[in-house]
Amino acid sequence: MAFLGTLLPRNPAKYLLAAFILQTVYILFFHHNAREQAQIQRTTLTKHYSLGETFAHDMSSEDHGLMSTKVAALSGLAEHYLENPSLDTHEVSDVVSQLFPWWDPATLKYYPWKKLQSWKSRIISSMESTGPSTGIVMSVMDSFAKEAAHLIGFLRNVHGCQLPIAIAYVGDDDLRPQTREFLRRRARDISFIDLTTIFDQQLVHLEGYAIKPFALLASPYPRTILVDADAVFFANPDKLFDEYPGLRDTGALFFHDRNINSGSERHDWLGRQLEAAGRSPSAYLNESSLFYRRYSSEEADAAVVCVDKSRVGLYMAVLFTCWMNTKEVRDASTFRIWHGDKESYWVSTELMGVPYSFEPWYAARMSQSQETGIELLLDDDKEWEKQHPRLSGAPQQDDASSNHKETPPPAHSSCTLHMAHADAWGIEPLWANGALWYDKGNKDHGISNWTHWYLGDRVHDVLEAYPAPESLAGSGGDVDDDAAKKRQEEVEQKILATQPEWLFMDWPRDYQTCFQRDHPRWRQLSDDFRDRLERMQGEMRRVEVDYEIEIGD
C-alpha cells in the first residue's frame, strides 16, 4: 500500500487543472486548424473554378494575349498551393499538363513544386543530395560544337567559372555521340540533356531557335543562365544572380539587341496583345524601352537569358515562352512577328504582368586596330553632323561608367558586328554575341582582337531627359498629327544621338566606318581586359587544333 501511495499525486487538483488546460488548448488548436483548412479548401475551389472559366475561352495560335491570361491564372493557382503545404501539388501538375500537353512532371528534373507533391516524395527528396542551385545550359548542335567548346574553355580555363554546364540537344542527329564526348572532355561538370527524352517531339517539333526555351525549361538548375553556343563571356558569370541589381530584384535579366529600326509591325502587335491580356504596359516599357517608344524595332539579344525558375511566376513565364515556340504557334505568329525566339522571353513576362529586368543599355559596339593598312571609307563629317546632330543637352553618365573618356580608336580601326553587353556597372564588356571570330560568317578573317568599345547612355536616363511630347505620352509613339510627328522626330534625334548606330542595310560600310561616326565616345579596353582576351585567343586556338584531331570535319 505504501508503494501505491507513492504513485498517487500529492495534490490531485493541480493535475486535474493541467489536464483541463491541455484539453482546452488541444480543442482550440484543432478547431482553429480545422477552420483554417476549411478556408484554404474554399479558396482552392474558388481558384480552380476561376481557372476553369479562363481555360474555357477558345483561342487560336495567334492569341498570345489571351493565352497569357490563362498562364497568369495558372501561376496564381500554383502560388496558392505552394503557400499552403497541406495541399496536394499533384493537382497543379495535372492542370499544367492540361494547358501544356508536352509538359511531363515525370521527365523534368526541376519545377518549383516538385519536392512538395506528397509525403512519399518529401521523404525521397530528403534522402537525395541537393544539386547546385545555379547553372548554365547551352543548346548545341554539331555545326556549333567548336564554338561551344570555345565557350567552355573560356569559362573554365580563363575565367575560373565553377558553375555546372548542361548541354541540351535534340537527339543523336542534332549532336552526335562523338561530338558529345569531345565536349564532355573539355572540362569538369559537363552534362547533357536529350530533349527528345523530356518533350514529345510530335507535339513540339523542336528545331533551330525553338530549341532554346525548352532547354531553359529542362534545365535542372533553379537559377539558370541560358547561353548560345556562340556567345563569348569576357568575365566569370558565377555571381551574376547576386551582382546584377535587376536580376537580384526580379529574378529575370534580359539583354538588349542593337538599336535599329525597321518598321512598326512589332509595336502594333504587342499593343494588340497587351489589350487582349487586359494589361497596361509595365513601368519598364513606359520608362526604359526604346522599343516601346518606337525608336527601335529590336529589343532583346537572347544569346544570354537569366531566369530564376524557383519563382513561380517566372517558371510559368518560361512555360508560356515554350508555348510561343511550339511549331504550330511559331509558324502561325511568333516567328512571323519576331526573329526566332529572341523576343519571346520578355514578351511572356510582360503579357503576364510578371516583373523582369533588362540591362540599362542597348547593345554596345566593339572595334579593333588594323595593322593591315586597309584603306577605310571616310564619311563627310559635316553631312554626318547634319543628319545626326549631337545636342549639348544629352545626359551624361557618371564617372564610373562614362563612355566619353579614355583613348579613342586610332585612325585605322574597324568595327565588328558583335553585340557587346556591359557588366552591372558599365565598366567593361561582360559578354558578346557572335563568337570570338572577327566575322563568324567568314572565319578566314581570323580571331577578333578588340581594342576599344562604345557603350551608349543609360536608356532610362535618356528617356527621362527627353520625354515624349505631351500629345505622344502613353501612345507608344503612335500618332497621326503632323506637328506631333515632327516633335517626335526632334526628340528621336536627340535620343538616338546618345546610342551607338548600326548601318543595318550596309554592314560592309558599317564595320569600316562606325568608329568615325562617334569617335569621341569610344573608349579603350583596359589592360586587364586585353590580357584576358589574349588568353581566350590562346584557348580558342587549342580547341581548334583538338577539334581537328578528334572530330576532323
List the helices and strands and how they pair.
Elements: H1 2-7, H2 12-55, H3 64-83, H4 90-99, H5 119-127, E1 134-139, H6 145-158, E2 165-169, H7 177-184, E3 190-194, H8 201-204, H9 211-218, E4 223-228, E5 231-233, H10 240-243, H11 245-250, E6 252-256, H12 265-277, H13 283-288, E7 300-308, H14 312-324, H15 327-337, H16 344-352, E8 357-358, E9 365-369, H17 381-387, E10 413-415, E11 419-422, E12 429-433, E13 452-454, H18 459-465, H19 482-496, H20 507-517, E14 523-524, H21 527-550
Helix pairs in contact: 2-3, 3-4, 3-12, 3-14, 6-21, 9-14, 12-16, 14-16
What do these coordinates show?
This protein is an alpha/beta fold. The protein folds into three domains: 13-109; 134-358, Spore Coat Polysaccharide Biosynthesis Protein SpsA, Chain A, CATH 3.90.550.10; 364-377 and 405-468 and 483-551, no CATH class. The protein has 21 helices and 14 strands. The protein has helices spanning 2-7, 12-55, 64-83, 90-99, 119-127, 145-158, 177-184, 201-204, 211-218, 240-243, 245-250, 265-277, 283-288, 312-324, 327-337, 344-352, 381-387, 459-465, 482-496, 507-517, 527-550; strands at residues 134-139, 165-169, 190-194, 223-228, 231-233, 252-256, 300-308, 357-358, 365-369, 413-415, 419-422, 429-433, 452-454, 523-524. The strands form three sheets. A seven-stranded mixed sheet has the order 3-2-1-4-7-6-8, with helices on both faces. The longest helix has 44 residues, at 12-55. It is globular. The protein starts with a helix and ends with a helix. Mean pLDDT is 85; it is low at 118-129 and 371-406.
